[in-house]
Amino acid sequence: MEFKVVVSEQAENDLANIYSYILNELKSQINADAVLGRLYTAMENLSFTAGSHHLYPNEPWHSLGIHYFSVNNYSIFYIADSNEDNPVATVIHVVYGKRDLDRVLNENNR
Questions:
Q1: Please, what sign has the CA dihedral across residues 58, 63, 66, 69?
Q2: Can you give the residue ranges of every domain in the chain?
Q3: What are all long-range contacts of 18-24, with beta carbons under 8 Å and residues at least 24 apart?
């Protein structure tokens, strides 16, 4: 089954912040471009892999069907709707993996 991949506004903001941090704070456009490229490739690959990643283990995110996986130092969170007619994987957050992930997810749902 092939999923349509949608990147939420929040996830786009996350990506912009990641890029800005690497570019402006770490002073490395090469690394900023490379990290963003890897993250976008991983999100595009969800069209074929959306059903294969783990559910986030903590509640209420587990019960809400939020999946996640890591790309280098970042975690990508998404919801997979496997409706037969129109399967969609919606990326809801892209976060530096050493942050308090429960807190980040909680802030997103306020």
A1: positive
A2: 4-108
A3: 18/74, 18/94, 18/96
pLDDT tens readout for residues 25-74: 999 999 999 999 999 999 999 999 998 999 999 999 999 999 999 999 99
Which residues, in sequence order, are bridge partners of residue 67? 55, 78
> Per the CATH hierarchy, to which homologous superfamily does domain 4-108 belong?
RelE-like (3.30.2310.20)
- Three-state secondary structure call for residue 109: coil
What is d(CA 39, CA 53) in angstroms, rounded to the nearest whole number? Answer: 15
Q: Tokens 């994987």 appear where? A: 89
Residue 7 has φ and ψ, to the nearest 5°, of -105, 120
In angstroms, the Cα distances linking 43 to 47, 51, 92 are 8, 13, 11
